[in-house]
User: Fold this.
Amino acid sequence: MIVIMTSHAPRSSVDNVVKQIEAAGCKAHLSEGQFRTIIGCVGEEGSIDPDHLASLTDVEKVQPIMKPYKLASREFHPADSVVEVGGGSVPVVKIGGAHAVCIAGPCTVEDREMLDIISQHVKQGGATILRGGAFKPRTSPYSFQGHGEDALRWLRAKGDELQMPVITEVMDTRQVAMIEKYTDMFQLGARNMQNFDLLKEIGKTRKPVLIKRGLAATVKDWLLSAEYVLSQGNRGVVLCERGIKTFEDSIRYTLDITSVAVVKTWSHLPIVIDPSHAAGRRDWVGSIALAGMAAGADGVMIEVHHEPAIAKCDGPQALLPKTFDDLMSKLRVVAGLWGKAF
Ligand code: PEP
Ligand code: MN
Assistant:
C-alpha cells in the first residue's frame, strides 16, 4: 500500500509514518515529489493496519496498490523518474523526463584498437553512454564469449578518456562485485531478465541497471523484474525494449513499440529501445529506432562497428559510423517532439 502525505507535510510526520511501518516489520520506500511525499509500504500482507496509518498526523490517505509491482508503479511515483548514470571519473548522464539518452558502441569489446575507433565515432555522433560487452551471452558455446576482465579494463579506460559513462552486461551473481568496480551501469541481458538472484544482487548495489525485456516476457513480468531491484533499495532502474519472440519470422525479434506506451502509463521508470537486436540487420535499425522514439521512449541503444564484416558478434546489425550520425540527427528531431533532448 502507499501512504500519501498532505502537501508540504513536515519531515517529522514523514519520519513518524516510516517508524510505524518499520515497527510492523515492513519496509518504507520514500517517493519525494515537488509538493508531497508518498511512502510505499512493502511487506507481508496483513502485517500493518491501514486504518492505523491513516490516523497518523499529516497522512492524507492510505491506498492499496493493486498492481503486483508496487515501487515500479505510477501510483507510488507519479512523476517520471530520472536515473543518473556516471559521476566520479566521468560526468553524470541523466535518463528520463526531459533527458534522452543514446547508448552506443560495439556489441562486444574485441580489442583496444577497435574500441578506440568506434568509441571516437559514437562520441562524435552524439552518444552519451558507451556500451561494450565483456561477457557475452551466446547461443552457441563455440561462439566468441567476450574478453572478460581485460575488456572491462579497456572499456573503463576509454570511458574515462572520452568522459563518457560506460555500460556492460553482467550475466552471473559471481560477476557483480567485479563488474561493479569497472562500470557505471549494469546491463541485465534479455536472457537473464528473470534471473531473480542476479536481480537481487544488483539491487543491493547502488549502480544503475538497464533491464532488457526477456524474449518471451510480458510487460508485467518485466516490471516485476524491475521491482526486484527497486525493493532492494536500488532506485536506478531503466527498462530496455529489445524485441520479443512472436509468430512473425521476417525479422529476428518484433520490437514491441506498444510496450513504450504501456510502460509509460503503468510505471514511472525510463524506457529506452534497442532496435539493433530486434532488427538483426542494419537497414531496418533506423526506422525502428525512430518509431520507438516517436512512441515516447527515453532513448536508444544502438550497436555500431566500423568494419562490421569482421565483427566477432552481431556484425550484420551494426550501423556504420556515418549511418549512425545520420540517424542521430533524425532522432534529435523526434525526441524534440516530446520535449526531450539528447
Ligand atoms: C547485447 O546488448 O549485446 C545483448 C546481448 O542484448 P540482449 O540481451 O538484448 O540480447
Ligand atoms: Mn549484440
